[in-house]
Specification:
Blueprint (H helix, E strand, L loop, with lengths): L1 H15 L6 H22 L1 H11 L3 E2 L11 E2 L10 H14 L3
Helix pairs in contact: 1-2, 2-4
């Protein structure tokens, strides 16, 4: 879950890091989104959050080419490709973020 949250904050910082916004305004918007995110996860319930965290904890992958396969390396941000949970998490976050526009 930490990786998911980190990728969301990176995106928010990119979106709100416009030249016409001061750093204080950017920080305020990021904090507002962070509070909304925590509210979402509180509404999900503790057991659901723990289950999602377990899915994204200590995930590794490797890259396979026609000639060889790399060593496993950790995935720190992002969602599992092809996972049915990925669109649900994305939609959950997008609904909350879109409410401010």
């Amino acid at each position: 879950m930490q990786g998911l949250q980190e990728s969301i904050w990176i995106y928010i910082r990119k979106v709100y890091n416009q030249s016409y916004l001061s750093s204080t305004e950017v920080e305020g918007k990021v904090l507002k989104q962070r509070k909304k995110t925590y509210k979402i996860f509180i509404n999900l319930g503790k057991n659901m959050i723990v289950a999602i965290q377990d899915l994204y904890d200590k995930v590794t992958t490797s890259v396979r080419t026609s000639r060889h396969k790399t060593e496993d390396f950790p995935i720190m941000i992002g969602l599992h490709q092809g996972s049915t949970l990925s669109p649900c998490l994305f939609n959950l976050m997008l609904d909350e973020f879109a409410g401010d526009t």
